[in-house]
Amino acid sequence: MDPAGVGPALLATMAEHAPRLREQIDPAEFGLTGAEDALRGAVTPTVREAVAKLPSGRVALAIGDAWITDDPLTAQGANVGSACAWIAAESIAADGPYDVAWARAVAQRMWDEAAGPVTEWTNAFLRPPADHIIELLATAATRAEAADLMVELFSDPAGNWAVLSDPDEVIRLVDAMV
Ligand SMILES: Cc1cc2nc3c(=O)[nH]c(=O)nc-3n(C[C@H](O)[C@H](O)[C@H](O)COP(=O)(O)OP(=O)(O)OC[C@H]3O[C@@H](n4cnc5c(N)ncnc54)[C@H](O)[C@@H]3O)c2cc1C
Known about the structure:
Blueprint: H1 3-17, H2 19-23, E1 46-47, E2 51-53, E3 59-61, E4 68-69, H3 77-94, H4 100-126, H5 131-142, H6 144-154, H7 157-164, H8 167-177
Antiparallel strand pairs: 1-4, 2-3
Helix pairs in contact: 3-4, 4-7, 5-6, 5-8
The structure holds flavin-adenine dinucleotide.
């Protein structure tokens, strides 16, 4: 990537897709502050084993990116990491013994309540969207209540995936708005 080309390319993209935003930008003031501002990379979605027994005999429970690395496109990595940390803390406070069976039960709860829905949702959005998702996005582009619903669902990732993974539910919501 040529760092010098990033600013003009962004301005051209905004002019095409977000003209009102583009009008607010002074091209003379707009650009990278340094070559390191332009980064290009890719994340390979990965779910690792959550539980390991260490040579010492202690049990390790992975959370955050050490356990699951999702693509950043749904912006959920830190969120799901902190949600899992909360579940793990509750489980630690609840009771031991802190053995492999306990750790596996905690990992299952973290997957069911937080990490699983986020991972499914993120991976679904890496693929071409299903028809009901396109319908919802198209409605959100013209109806404020649909846009509000999409944004609100981000604050409840598990609930979000429960809705988005159910075509009938999405179509019911869209039909109620049009
Ligand atoms: C481009 C991009 C955009 C993102 N956008 C969002 C977003 O909008 N919202 C969101 O919720 N998430 C987002 N994420 C994901 C989020 O950044 C990560 O999921 C989150 O930071 C993971 O937290 P973590 O504590 O598990 O790991 P990290 O944040 O990676 O923390 C691990 C820490 O451990 C340290 N460490 C490593 N090895 C050792 C060692 N041997 N000894 C001591 N310390 C060590 C590292 O230096 C690091 O500080 C994004 C990720 C990317 C790549």
